[in-house]
Amino acid sequence: EYFLDKDREHYHLLAYLSTKFDNELIIDLGTHRGTSALALSYNKTNKVITYDVREFRGGIVHNINDIPENIEWKIKNIMDDDAFSDRENLLKSKLIFLDTAHEGDFEYDVYKYLKNGSYKGILVLDDIHFNGKMKDFWEKIDTTKYDVTHLGHSIESSGTGLVDFSGEVEEIE
Description:
By secondary structure, the protein is of the alpha/beta class. The protein has five helices and seven strands. The chain is globular, with a radius of gyration of 15 Å.
């Protein structure tokens, strides 16, 4: 129920987006406590691979009796040289959620990799208004993008962004 509550964070949006794909690969960059991976695993036909640079401890995942079998947990930096095969998974996925250190550099590296690799999916970004570095990163994006803070974070100062590499997102008012 935590990630389906529309008044909390962006988890309800992630769960909803997972229902728009069937039998696809979804990537979660920045596992932290595992909540976004749980939301993305809502549609059990999809496979979710979640990455973080360190193993998480605690969090919502440890309070759940049955962790969904459609989640794979990996401890590594997907942009490191030794993570080439994992990095290729980014280009194969239909949906990527990026919620990492909020410094802008890593986020921009992922964005450039997707753009240069002719990615054809959707990138959801957390905390696009969080600080100056994230605001600068958001402004540098020249692919079709949407500020969906009203659908994601309930806190305006954090923000949620959606970058449409697929050309299939339709904005409905």
